[in-house]
Amino acid sequence: MSARLREIPYNYTSFSDREIVLRLLGEKAWDTLHVLRSERRTGRSARMLYEVLGDIWVVSRNPYLQDDLHDNPGRRAALIAAMHHRLEEIEKRRQQNLDETNADAGIKAQQAARAQRVAFLLTSARDAVDAFAAGFAEVAALRRRALKKLCRSTRRDNIQFDGLARVSHVTDATDWRVEYPFVVIYPDSEDEVAAVVRDCISLGLTIIPRGGGTGYTGGALPLTPLSAVINTEKLDALGAVELSELPGVAGKVASIRCGAGVVTKRVMEAAEAAGQVFAVDPTSADASCIGGNVAMNAGGKKAVLWGTALDNLVSWRMVDANGFFLEVTRLEHNLGKIHDVPATRFQVQRYRRDGSTAYGEPEILEIPGAQFRKAGLGKDVTDKFLSGLPGIQKEGCDGIITSARFILHKMPAAIRTVCLEFFGQVRDSVPAIVEIKNYLDERAAAATGAGTHPVMLAGLEHMDERYLKAVGYATKAKRQAGGAGRPKMVLIGDIVGEDDAAVAAAASHVVRIANARGGEGFVAVSAETRRSFWLDRARTAAIAKHTNAFKINEDVVIPLARLGDYSDGIERINIELSIANKLALLDALDEYFQGELPIAQHGETLPAPEFLGDRREAARELLARTRSRWQYLLDNLDLPVAEARADAVPGLAAVTHAGRTVFSLLQDHSVRVSWKDEVRGELQQLFDGLVFHRILEACQAIHQSVLKARVFVALHMHAGDGNVHTNIPVNSDNYAMLRQANAAVARIMRLAKSLDGVISGEHGIGITKLEYLDAHEIEAFRRYKDKADPRGRFNAGKLLAGGDLRNAYTPSFSLLGAESLIMEQSETGSIADSIKDCLRCGKCKPVCATHVPRANLLYSPRNKILATSLLIEAFLYEEQTRRGISVKHFDEFGDVADHCTVCHKCASPCPVDIDFGDVSIAMRNMLRKQGKKKFNPGTAASMLFLNATNPNTIKIARTLMIEWGYSAQRLAYRAARALGLAQRQTRRPPASTGRPPMRAQVVHFVNKPMPGKLPKRTARALLELEDRHIVPIIRDPARVTEDSDAVFYFPGCGSERLFSQVGLATQAMLYAIGAQCVLPPGYLCCGYPQTAAGEEEAGRRIITDNRVLFHRVANTLNYLDIKTVIVSCGTCMDQLQKYEFDKIFPGCRLLDIHEYLLERGVKLAGVAGVRYLYHDPCHTPMKTYQPLKVVNQLMGSEVRLNERCCGEAGTLALTRPDIATQVRFRKEEEMRKGVAEVRAAGGSGKFTGEVKILTSCPSCLQGLARYNDDAGSDADYIVVEIAKHMLGPDWMADYVAKANRGGIERVLL
């Protein structure tokens, strides 16, 4: 019998049973098991053994399960006892089989042999269980030792053993996993790194350097469980751009010093702000870090002009395998590509334990320039030895990079971006790359020779048809309307120079090159248009979305002249894979038609053969005929067209394509292999009629299932230097598909080498490409490793024999069987589905408020998604085993959900549109529905205040919480500040994984003061409008005419109950400009706080009740033509967008008060003695106009944007003040910096007046007010500031008095 591929339970990974057994029991055990599987009788013993292996396997790859068993000896003992019990049952069955009486000597011998094999397996399994059981005590002991030792070198908060930290560092952008790290360490500074390395060495741990985790080859994956990941993200010191003298270089050169943890995009922005260009710009720039760029020798689109990291480095500092610093400095830098010079010299200086005292004389390495890359290639990182140069291109195998200095370049003044769309065949279009490059190179050489400014190519990027589809590319050419469809290939390039006319002429010529090859060209001049051209290029990771975000990502470098041949080779592979998939479809359909076919009978039931007639045979004959043709085409791709069978190649095609092969006809679609035309259409005719519709539905379902397993290769290139990114999306749950994809990769690597290319241009080798390097290509590095790190202290096993994919797996929820029923019965299924497409690219990190490494806050959506998937796996495993779900897992699940401000900012940069704000809300809802959401007094108090509608309740709550509570908090703040408790937390916030002790929470709550001097009463109370049966209409009788605007103002909780001055200022300004302001009856909440807190039903109920109420208001006030609904709160704006106001007040629009005032021409003429910053809320209410432009125009002076979340995040500061402290850490830095810049601006000495930070969100107003003491600023609302200066300092009292003296019409509802 043929054994199933996966019988071991709880295996939600790409591993088959074979890989699991090899990993847990060894190769001999697998061979034995394989024999026993073929002799299987009842299979009971096998199932019990598989259950044991499944338990070990799932726990070994899930740190949340490990930690739970570690903390609960009773649960651990029960699991281990259950394992031993199963093994004992197998032993009993073995003995029973031996004791069976049988006279046949041959059968007895077989039984004895079988029993011996079973005994061997049992011995191996018992050893595995014993090792599993002993591992907990060993890990606990090692953790105690590690903590004791590492706490001498760095803070306790920087040493993490928890599940989130470990799962965040078990993989990179590949999602391959081998072993979980034992510990993750986040040094606070560069100086700490050497001591941490020495401690790890003494603990016997191999060290894995890690930055942004954006690698595509598994270079930062631990290969052994005894590993310590040193995360460098806290080493984010970024120096100023400075002109400095370089060793052996005449004149001063612009350069910048970066810590290893600085995100690449930050360096690019800093250089740009100084009028320079940072040349190392990988596609992962939003998340990749400088240390990784050096260790991998990263490049990007600008490499075509200025080279990769190696070409641009001035010096770099690292810690070696002995735990000491060394610094490498390049001498006589040529300020260009390194391979252009005959020889390059580097100085290597080693330092003593203190990191500053030189140790020995500097070592000088002199390396011929030609040795850095293969001749004729712009990129090449396959030579890991690199003549013994430390650190660079070593993938963290000889030390850890801690900082680096790079040269910067001056971008020429003139720049044009071209976008070229090609609609013809790839083989005809790809040569345009060479023609464009040659044209611009020749032009640059001629200009240099003539002494004029050259025009240069600063980047040329390529995307093929599959990538264009994945990124949702919008075709620019008008020919699409004529049926040409999406382009087959797109090139996007930057052409630069000092002479604008010359650059424009060169861009026009490049467009003509595209025209000559059947393409269309577009030229962007403005910065905004050029940026829009490049946006699609940033979303290339979306290619893997349809396979749940797993892909095999290979980058190769091909000589430019051979790019056409490479593209043809890839097309060949794609055609073969496509036909093979279609043949698999025919096989699946043929198998289906051999079985029982469903008939949809109505009324009288007749035997199926009566209905089917000869249709079954006709269908199978159609499939056989089609298979014959398709198989013939696949087997004869190189056959000349003239020799091809007439039924395979139409006669017309043979005439028009004389002299060509069958492959070329398939390539340009002159001959098609089509399921739709050749099979589906025929089957539809054959099974026409309602009675057969279920047969056709089944055929379509089979087609979709087989199509999902189709392997294809997609290309995008840094085309200017021939660096081709070759990606193969794969369903990791499909074992056959994975093997087919790996076979395709092997062909691709052979193809690249056959074209005189190399197998890696910038991604490195890691574990994914090692098997494709010839022995001589890696031998020099291995000799270097033996010398520099003979004990494997860094990245043990990496780039050495066995360090490939043989032990790597990737998880897949698509493998769920019985578990799917559990998922369907809870929200875990929808949560898993919403995060399954995550690409781990890290583009969410820069915008995420809960990713602040220096504040010990590393809860980026990427990390939270990895953690969430493991927690869901833990839920499913424990639900199936009936041992009960650990309460701890619910707490950890809630902890992940808590670490989200629900700002939704992560959705915008995400290539696959995951919004972790929505995921967090779903997680909170799930916990609430299952009764596992812990009581939080802050949440309860907030919801009580927001849900209340009775005026007396609101008055009491406001008195207790706002007046007395805020006063008490400010008093506690002053005490904590005097004692130094507050500063201790805010300067170095502690980690917030898990809830801190109550004492720490209290200090977190009081470490920043609540705002004071709030109005004593709510806006409605001041205007006597608290009756919920009254609809107030506020207007100035002296200003209102028949043509006056009527607006519906929804103040929301923050602008009405808390900061009532905001609601009053909004009304006062509307009153002053002559608008009629309709208020909703009574106190209302929009429902957003309830929804965000996980109270989905309460939120929906509020929305429904409000919409019904507003319809009543609209009917009551049908004589008013309300065309605008005004809000003064961003969360209200977000929630009210779901209310469908256009159905309530026909033709109306939603607008923020500030946008409305701008439209009405309201603006200040500048305010003397005050300078402003603007904090744009995470939930910005300004959706129609650009917020910063609105603020600048309203204030009549320059207002600078101040980035980052304020830390209030609705109710987060009350519910999780520990997280708020971490978020505020980053905002306080930004506030101090912003205030300092504002005071220094203007050039007339330091400004000593008042600096105000304005906002347009009530929650942010509270959050920003907390920084007044630290930043030297004053927080206020835009509309309040406008009211003060336009209506006078006593505007509030004046407005209330005027409104109460006949300015309010009260309409009975």
Keywords:
1309 residues; alpha/beta; seven-stranded antiparallel β-sheet; 13% strand; globular; 50 helices
List the helices and strands and how they pair.
Elements: H1 17-24, H2 27-38, H3 44-60, H4 63-71, H5 73-99, H6 105-150, E1 159-160, H7 163-168, E2 183-185, H8 190-202, E3 206-210, E4 227-231, E5 242-245, E6 252-259, H9 264-273, H10 290-296, H11 303-306, H12 309-312, E7 313-320, E8 325-331, E9 343-351, E10 358-368, E11 399-407, E12 414-422, H13 426-429, H14 431-450, E13 455-464, H15 465-470, E14 489-497, H16 500-516, E15 519-524, H17 527-535, E16 551-557, H18 563-594, H19 608-612, H20 615-635, H21 651-656, H22 662-667, H23 675-686, H24 693-708, E17 714-718, E18 723-729, H25 735-754, H26 775-788, H27 819-824, H28 828-835, E19 851-852, E20 857-858, H29 861-881, H30 887-898, H31 916-929, H32 937-947, H33 951-979, H34 981-987, H35 998-1006, H36 1019-1023, E21 1030-1034, E22 1046-1050, H37 1052-1058, H38 1060-1072, E23 1076-1078, H39 1088-1092, H40 1096-1116, E24 1122-1127, H41 1130-1136, H42 1141-1144, E25 1149-1152, H43 1153-1159, E26 1170-1174, H44 1187-1195, E27 1199-1201, H45 1212-1215, H46 1217-1240, E28 1250-1255, H47 1258-1265, H48 1268-1271, E29 1274-1277, H49 1278-1287, H50 1291-1303, E30 1304-1308
Parallel strand pairs: 2-4, 3-4, 22-23, 22-24, 24-25, 26-27, 26-28, 28-29
Antiparallel strand pairs: 1-2, 5-6, 6-11, 7-8, 7-11, 8-9, 9-10, 12-14, 12-15, 13-14, 13-17, 16-18, 17-18, 19-20, 21-23, 21-30
Helix pairs in contact: 1-2, 2-6, 3-5, 3-6, 4-5, 5-6, 14-16, 18-20, 18-24, 18-25, 20-23, 28-31, 29-30, 30-31, 35-46, 37-38, 38-49, 38-50, 43-44
